[in-house]
């Protein structure tokens, strides 16, 4: 049996005010063609199906279109919730989709472990693999807060609980799997993963990243959250699939792919995904950028999106007018123009202020702590509490 692993689709993403609907539609068409051609019998989508907790209607339609199309191809689908996903939104259609060979797992199931175990069968009706479907593990689902508990104690408790959940689910799977390969999933940061600017740090309580050694010996581990495809723990069969389309300009140079795991020979193949829309970053002086823009062309179907960084301290408004004239009639659009900043500061000596695109909530809070001149330990404690708050309140239920 061949199982395709993908993650971090972020359906409904608004990319600097632009919709990604066309790219996602082309992605679904490509994926369905590949599933048919390569005889894929199951797909695992390891979190962040949607970009926000309230995805637009077209994003939900794309999701259901994918489910229906895979069902028509007799291909199972396992969906686990990511940190961007709303549990309630994914649960809305959970029971219905299960009738279409689609299994949606949104929360850990401590009391009913079998609810997070999915037995995959091949088209001959034979059992081929057992999946321990683990979604993004929110703090409130894992530990109970205790007054007066130290940061280190909270971190140790959370780490122990995550390890315990994976272990108890794995042991339950072993009891029923017999000689079947056991596949794990997860949506979190495992030590060794490389982040991009579109990946917000997941602070699971005070635990930023999980050591691979805490996880059971899965035959394959399908991870989501990191947008670059890579293996973890030095194991070819433990990997992030990466996002299928670039979610930020700094991902534009990464070859996007899906991973295909063969349950019979335990091999993993990386399948390259076409680049449906080019995202390109250019940096230089005004004259260098003008020269580059005059020569640039785009022959693809979708508009090329540009991110321009000026190394000159010039008037951006006048430069943008010049850029508009250069690109008139071309299938190219500039989404962002910025001056090079060696260090982002909320307030600069020349009266400029950073924009919301320049900073994160963590940046703002860090500057506030610096201004208050708190002692290092106290500041670290407050920063960790703030990161926990951000994590627990970003996705509305």
Explained architecture:
The chain has helices at 21-37, 57-72, 87-92, 94-98, 139-142, 151-177, 286-295, 316-326, 361-372, 376-393; strands spanning 2-6, 14-15, 18-19, 42-46, 76-80, 102-105, 117-121, 127-132, 182-187, 220-224, 230-232, 235-240, 257-262, 268-272, 279-284, 304-310, 332-339. The protein is an alpha/beta fold and 397 residues long. The protein folds into three domains: 2-272, Purple Acid Phosphatase, chain A, domain 2 (4-Layer Sandwich), CATH 3.60.21.10; 278-340, Double Stranded RNA Binding Domain (2-Layer Sandwich); 353-397, no CATH class. It has a six-stranded mixed sheet with strand order 6-5-4-1-13-14. A six-stranded mixed sheet has the order 7-8-9-10-12-11, with helices on one face. Strands 15-16-17 form a three-stranded parallel sheet, covered by helices on one side. The protein is globular. It starts with a strand and ends with a helix.
Which labels suit this protein?
6-stranded mixed beta sheet; alpha/beta; 397 residues; 22% strand; Double Stranded RNA Binding Domain
């Amino acid at each position: 049996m061949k199982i395709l692993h993908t993650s971090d689709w972020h359906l409904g993403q608004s990319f600097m005010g632009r919709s990604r609907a066309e790219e996602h539609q082309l992605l679904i068409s490509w994926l369905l063609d590949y599933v048919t051609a390569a005889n894929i019998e199951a797909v695992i989508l390891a979190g962040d199906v949607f970009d926000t907790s309230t995805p637009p209607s077209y994003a939900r339609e794309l999701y259901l279109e994918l489910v229906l199309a895979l069902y028509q191809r007799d291909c199972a689908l396992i969906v686990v919730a990511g940190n961007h996903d709303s549990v309630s939104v994914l649960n809305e259609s959970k029971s219905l989709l299960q009738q279409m060979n689609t299994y949606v797992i949104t929360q850990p199931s401590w009391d009913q472990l079998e609810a997070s175990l999915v037995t995959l069968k091949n088209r001959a009706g034979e059992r081929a693999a057992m999946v321990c479907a683990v979604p993004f593990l929110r703090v409130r689902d894992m530990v109970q807060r205790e007054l007066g508990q130290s940061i280190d104690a909270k971190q140790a408790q959370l780490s122990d609980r995550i390890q315990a959940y994976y272990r108890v689910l794995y042991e339950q799977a072993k009891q029923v799997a017999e000689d079947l390969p056991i596949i794990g999933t997860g949506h979190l940061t495992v030590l060794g993963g490389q982040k991009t600017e579109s990946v917000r740090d997941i602070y699971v309580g005070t635990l930023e990243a999980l050591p691979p050694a805490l996880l059971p010996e899965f035959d394959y581990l399908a991870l989501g959250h990191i947008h670059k495809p890579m293996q973890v723990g030095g194991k070819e069969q433990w990997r992030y699939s990466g996002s299928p389309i670039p979610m930020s300009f700094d991902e534009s140079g990464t070859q996007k792919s899906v991973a295909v795991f063969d349950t019979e020979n335990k091999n993993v193949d990386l399948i390259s995904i076409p680049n449906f829309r080019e995202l390109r970053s250019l940096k230089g002086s005004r004259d260098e950028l003008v020269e580059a823009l005059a020569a640039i062309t785009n022959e693809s179907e979708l508009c090329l999106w540009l991110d321009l960084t000026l190394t000159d301290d010039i008037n951006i408004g006048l430069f943008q007018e010049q850029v508009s004239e250069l690109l008139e009639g071309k299938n190219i659009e500039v989404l962002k123009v910025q001056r090079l900043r060696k260090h982002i500061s909320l307030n600069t000596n020349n009266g400029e202020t950073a924009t919301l695109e320049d900073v994160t909530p963590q940046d703002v809070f860090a500057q506030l702590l610096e201004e208050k001149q708190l002692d290092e330990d106290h500041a670290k404690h407050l920063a960790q509490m703030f990161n926990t708050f951000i994590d627990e309140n970003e996705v509305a239920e």
